[in-house]
Design goal:
Layout lengths: L3 H24 L3 H9 L12 H20 L61
Helix pairs in contact: 1-2, 1-3
Amino acid sequence: MKSATDVMQEIVFAAVIDAVAALKTASKGLPNTLLRDINAIHANATFRDLPPELQAAISESVRAAFTRLLKEGYAIGPKQAAPQRTASAPHGPTGHDRRSRRPPPKGDRPRPGGPPRGGGPGRGPKPGGKGK
């Protein structure tokens, strides 16, 4: 069985190729139309903003992706229906989780050869600063 990363990379690559082909079809071979359609795609574009050919290609790619994942043996379903892992290490004070390996925030970390950030001499308001 292929890794999930390999399967997803193949799925995304196929979807991108299909999308480019759909954009070319939508432009009917006219370079200016193709360029206009490509320039119309941006971070705030919605699905309905895309040419109908591209919408159809994306819809088909999504259906094909789910079919491919199922064929490869991956389970797909709502988050609530996902099986819970019981073989993992316990979390909490006695177990390890990802958060426990993070270093403390920078403000709490001592500087090499000096006091922790945010404290120490020279920090804070200067005496007589506002009354002048």
